[in-house]
Amino acid sequence: MSQQTPGKKRKQKVKLDLTRRDFLTLAATAAGSAVAAQALTTGPLSPFSGLKQAQLTGEEIGGHTTGRHQWGMVVNLDTCIGCEYCQRACSATNDVAPDVPWNIVEEQQSASGRRYFFTRPCLHCQHAPCVEVCPVQATFVRDDGVVVMDYDRCIGCRYCMVACPYDARRFNWGKREDVNAFVPTWGIAEVERRPRGVVEKCTFCIHRIDAGLANGLVPGVDPEATPACVNICPVEARVFGDLKDPESRVAKLIENSPTFRLREELGTRPSVYYIPPKEGV
Amino acid sequence: MATSTAPIPRRLSISPRTGGWLGFLGLALLAGLTAAILVFARGLILTNLSNGVPWGLWITIDLSAIALGAGAFTLSAVVYLFGLKRLQPIVRLAVFVGFIGYTTALLTLVMDIGRPDRFWHPWVYWNIHSVLWEITWCITIYLAILIVEFLPVIVETKFFDRYPKFRTLAHRIHGAAPVLAVLGLLISLLHQSSLGATYGILRSRPIWFKPSMPIMFIISAVAVGPAVTMGVAFVIEWIRRKATVPHDILRLIARASGLALLLYAYIKFWDLAAVTYYGRTPGSDQAFSILSSFTPYGFGFWVGEIVIGILLPVLFFLVPRFNKRPGYLVLGAFLGMVGVIFNRWNVTVSGLVVPLDYAPGVDLTAVLPKPYIPNLTEWAVGLGVLGYALTMLTLGVRFLPLFRPSDETRH
How far off is chain B from A183, nearest CA to CA, in Å? Predict the structure, then answer.
């Protein structure tokens, strides 16, 4: 109607058809939106401002796991010789694709220039970021502190991989058809291969822990009930056991050695403790 | 051929222009469908995604499509809640564009998850602590709202001449439009910003972990979503050579969009200043230095997000010289759209390319970040969903009364 004549009457003053009322309404919309967004996402109405993680992780606030045990590991970086046996035994026992291991071993240099080896299983955090973000509770912390996957529930969105601070998760991009070169030299596959499209991770060999406990064995003491990576280590750089049992080897090591956990400032509370190399990391 | 029932003379008259367009749409859909079938058959191994960069082009499309569909809730709320009845003539188109955006996102999402057969799990297995769970629910509910809001348009088609009962029923349901607008507004504010929170809450990622993430997502969506609807209205008008929505309404939207983009620019400025200057940490410093040395992050940010996505649209939307001309408004809407896509890409991929710093004493720069470039399969699916969106738009423009009868010359 009134517009549609561009160019010709350039000097004519543009009629501002935004009334004061319109402007205020729009401004209020924008401001209200921002306030609501703030309140709902990071503010007081946020669904994740006060995560009641206890319900999800089986952990009481400020306490420990609700179960009788809390399985944990101590990795001694001072004694590790970087032989990668742990990685191979793990990949054989859990039938993990050899090129995407759950366990990693990396050569590092300490500040003083001496080389050492850094190894990492899943750290089994008690405040696990992966558990918080999973939309379907396909990954959760068991009451014995082990973070496990439900492969039948996982939808493969991979948010847990994005959220994990320690790069401990692997996705099955395709159907596995490879022959696992580590079987049988480094162990026999004790669990099924995971199907295409789900995320997988280190389980602390729960199939051994659960079966062992049912047969009266002690995980961390009896090899049949202990993770494969711990059993095979030739220098005992990995020690496994119940963090809740003060008589366990892990509890004693933690009590008597200087230990640290990875990125403790994130508040993830990993169940894996590290003894640093003598000259420091 | 010679069926005698429908004596419509213009039935087979397809102009070369229309034919070419339909051909393009067909090819895009065919490419997308082929790639989709391959991916369903063989899995995500066909993409260039990896354990290091598990999210890529498709997640970018999801985020962008949802942000660009934000015109639906913004304009519905403005009309039905804030009483700016003048904007009524564009609401139908906005809801339609929103519907296309959300369904595009869902299509891509189904491609992107490893187990499409389990798409329904978030509805059954709840993790109320997960942002992604909340987003899934919000999007589901919001899509339902969009469909109800759009029902009147569907029942007004010729087809429903035969079923007047449906027509009255749908119109009665539509009486709840203001309630739907409230619900739609709340739910949209929640999930549009939660998409930013998806990244913002990850405390181990130095360049994501900040509370400004959800704010920037919601404001960019509110700024650009309506502008996209405005641009679409102009383009439809050019193609059909028939008026769609009064131009003063479209200009008003453009101006509001320009103001919202200024607000976005302001927040982005402070975000940048805080993260890279005043409140810098070793983590974010290192992340940015890695990004600038190994990826075109700087180009994407300054050229893609700031110049293309903010400065030019603001110029075209707010300066009277430009905003009187539909051409500039459409260009502005297009550039704003490109800017949002650049932003969502930068957020997603850049945050992932920076390696995680979890082992003490590890030199991050020694671990070369694995660059991620989408491969042909991913682009083909991208083209396919673009084809879907444009096909829906074409069909809608051709068969649905998107513009109120009073707005165009009837019969």
Answer: 24
